[in-house]
C-alpha cells in the first residue's frame, strides 16, 4: 500500500496572514508546519520578506523564483524532503543564515559559494559526503553544522575560512587523520576553531 500525502492548498491571503514583524522591524514569513509539499506559488508575491521560514513541511523541490527574494537574510528550510537546491540560491546575496538541516541532500550546488554574506550554514541530518570547493569562498562564514551526514574527513575547503568559529561534525563516520591547519583545531565529535 502506497500512502500519498496530499499537499494543502495555500492562497496569497493565507500566506499574508503568516507575515509577522520581528523585534528589529523586519518582515518574517512563517510558513512552518503548514503541511505543504511544494513552496506555494503565491509566496513569490511576498518577495520583500527579510526572513522566510518554510521548516517542518514536506517540500521536495525548492523553486527558482527564490531568486526574487533578494532582501532575504534568513532562510529556514529544515525538516523537509529536499533532495537538491536550485542554482538560483546564488541570487540571495543578503543571506546571512541558511538552515537546510534534516533534509535529503546528497550534494550542494557550487553556487552556494557565491553567498558572500552568509554567516551560519546548517547542513546537519542530510546525506552529504562532501562540500563543493566553493564553500571556501564564504569569507563571512562563522558557523557550519555538518552533523549526521556521511563525511569521512573534515572538508578541506573549510580550512580557507578565516572567520570560522565552529564546525559541528557529530555522528559522521570520520576517519582519524592529521589535519594540516594554521589554526589549532580540537578534534573530537565537534570541531571548534580557536584563534
TrEMBL record:
* SUPFAM superfamilies noted in UniProt: L domain-like (SSF52058)
> What's a GO cellular component annotated to this UniProt protein?
cytoplasm
Q: Where is the Disease resistance R13L4/SHOC-2-like LRR domain?
A: 89-169
**What keywords would UniProt list here?**
Leucine-rich repeat, Repeat
Please give the InterPro entries that the UniProt record associates with this protein.
Answer: Leu-rich_rpt, Leu-rich_rpt_typical-subtyp, LRR_dom_sf, LRR_domain-containing, LRR_R13L4/SHOC2-like
Any Pfam family hit: LRR_14
Protein name, per record? Leucine rich repeat containing 18b
Which species does this protein come from?
Answer: Oreochromis niloticus (Nile tilapia)
Amino acid at each position: 500500500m502506497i500512502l500519498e500525502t496530499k499537499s494543502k492548498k495555500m492562497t496569497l491571503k493565507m500566506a499574508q496572514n503568516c507575515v509577522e514583524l520581528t523585534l528589529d522591524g523586519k518582515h518574517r514569513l512563517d510558513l512552518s508546519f503548514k503541511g505543504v509539499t511544494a513552496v506555494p506559488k503565491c509566496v513569490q508575491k511576498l518577495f520583500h520578506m527579510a526572513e522566510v521560514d518554510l521548516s517542518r513541511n514536506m517540500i521536495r523541490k525548492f523553486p527558482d523564483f527564490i531568486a526574487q527574494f533578494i532582501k532575504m537574510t534568513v532562510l529556514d528550510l529544515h525538516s523537509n524532503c529536499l533532495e537538491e537546491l536550485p542554482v538560483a540560491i546564488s541570487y540571495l546575496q543578503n543571506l546571512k543564515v541558511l538552515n537546510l538541516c534534516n533534509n535529503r541532500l546528497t550534494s550542494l550546488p557550487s553556487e552556494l559559494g557565491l553567498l558572500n554574506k552568509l554567516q551560519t550554514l546548517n547542513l546537519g541530518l542530510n546525506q552529504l559526503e562532501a562540500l563543493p570547493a566553493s564553500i571556501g569562498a564564504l569569507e563571512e562564514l562563522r558557523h557550519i553544522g555538518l552533523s549526521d551526514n556521511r563525511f569521512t574527513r573534515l572538508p578541506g575547503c573549510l580550512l580557507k575560512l578565516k572567520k570560522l568559529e565552529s564546525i559541528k561534525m557529530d555522528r559522521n563516520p570520520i576517519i582519524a587523520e592529521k589535519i594540516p591547519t594554521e589554526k589549532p583545531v580540537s578534534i573530537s565529535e565537534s570541531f571548534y576553531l580557536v584563534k
